[in-house]
Amino acid sequence: LNTPKELPRDLQNYLDEAENGVIYFSMGGNLRGNDMEESKRKAIIKVFSQLKQRVLLKWDNDTLPRQPDNVKLGKWLPQQDILAHPKIKLFVTHGGLLSVIEAIYHGVPVVGIPVFGDQEMNMAVAEAYGYGKLLRFSDLTEEAFRAALTEVLNNDRYRENAIRRSRIMHDQPMKPLDKAMYWIEYVLRHNGAPHLRTSALNLRWFQVLCLDVVLFAAITMFVTTFAVYKVIVITCRSRSTKLKLKKPTKKKN
Q: Where is the chain membrane-spanning (predicted)?
């Protein structure tokens, strides 16, 4: 990720002056605020109005009906630069991959409200690693939203896990861009670096898919099963024949 840039003066002041921290809310471009069900929109706004934290809300309009005093709107917001600010306590997101990566990079816990695609899977991973809370959009109510925010804000393990994941992401011998440049130049220096190419390029398509191995295994299993079956049948017939031969005949008076 790029180095965070300086925030616009109004945003910088809004974040700096937040005594109890700031919650950043953005559903990306997947779900516009105007397209959200009114009941869900009202639930979100009502919960925000009851918080002691300030809320920075990515919103499509310049105004918000019944906008709480602790909520600031923005049609476009520099997300990564905002997440880098130390006053950000929580990121409410749709769970897109880039948003989750940016949250991890800056050590910010998340509450994810996935809408479609890979978003639910991304949030399931965040929940499994302990730096996020998953709240399905279909389950979004005032009570559920308040419970999710309260859980992540008041439980230190979410921030601790987010910071731990951030340290892991940052612990690299070189920056990702420098690494990409190194390997591009490496390939150019070694004429395409054929020694790094996978041997799978020299195989036929059915070998790459291991169809020859699967076919061999299937034939082996079939032959073995058939042989065992024939042995059992022959054994049973032989035993039956012997029993018939040993069966005593009745004597006539």
A: 205-229
pLDDT at 3 over 90: no
What pLDDT, on a 0 to 100 scale, did the predictor assign at position 60? 84
Q: Where are the domains of the chain?
A: 9-170, 200-246
Would you tell me which CATH number, out of the four given (3.40.50.300, 3.60.90.10, 1.10.8.870, 3.40.50.2000), belongs to the domain 9-170? 3.40.50.2000
Q: CA-CA distance, 199 to 206, in Å (whole number)?
A: 14
Q: Inform me whether the pLDDT recorded for 204 exceeds 80.
A: yes
Q: Return the closest-CA partner of residue 100 out of 122, 133, 78.
A: 122
Neighbour order of strands in the sheet with 71-74: 71-74, 54-58, 22-26, 88-93, 110-112, 132-134
Place of tokens 């009114």: 38
Residue 83 near residue 90 (C-beta atoms within 8 A): no
Would you say 120 and 97 are in contact if contact means Cβ atoms under 8 Å apart? no
Q: What is the pLDDT of residues 83-103, one digit of tens each?
A: 999 999 999 999 999 999 999
Residue 66, pLDDT above cutoff 90: no
